[in-house]
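Example 3.
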Amino acid sequence: EAQVTQNPRYLITVTGKKLTVTCSQNMNHEYMSWYRQDPGLGLRQIYYSMNVEVTDKGDVPEGYKVSRKEKRNFPLILESPSPNQTSLYFCASSLNSGGGETQYFGPGTRLLVL
Amino acid sequence: AQTVTQSQPEMSVQEAETVTLSCTYDTSESDYYLFWYKQPPSRQMILVIRQEAYKQQNATENRFSVNFQKAAKSFSLKISDSQLGDAAMYFCAYRAGGTSYGKLTFGQGTILTVHP
């Protein structure tokens, strides 16, 4: 089944404790992206990747890191999480960055930073 | 920068009735795509319908249709014969065409309640 998977689905952590949220897709997509969803703000892009080893900042990159060493994986790293990073996170992928390409979303990761 | 605005934080509809969710956007691009996503309580993002800006014909997917007014930069979603399973948060989204950065720009969302 074609899908985007994320782990963990739920995470409670404390300020400053490094964490990684994994994202994997099995559709051989070139383009991958991370979004965060906050009430009243919709979804906002954090980082994106056009292909392996090519990543760039989205609208809200502060406090996050990413890497794209393999085509299928695009982990999101919070090196020193803070309470303002409490949010619902989505990974998404599409065949390429073309506007008409459908983005497929993972199931989401709900993060609480205490 | 592109912006997407959904001015209705909440909407409600009776089962079997029709409801329209509003969305406006701002862009200087001529080539772009518009989308409506549904987010049920499971939080999964589900693509409902998409519209290519170069197409004059409004997109339709079963009970879901859009009213795309390019000059007014308006992109509303009409749900006909509403069902209880339509209850969800709905997001309008924009994506520039060509070899853009691929970013989806989302509106704030509209919570749709369906009354039996």
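Residues 10 and 111 of chain B are 5 Å apart (CA to CA). Chain B has a mean pLDDT of 94.
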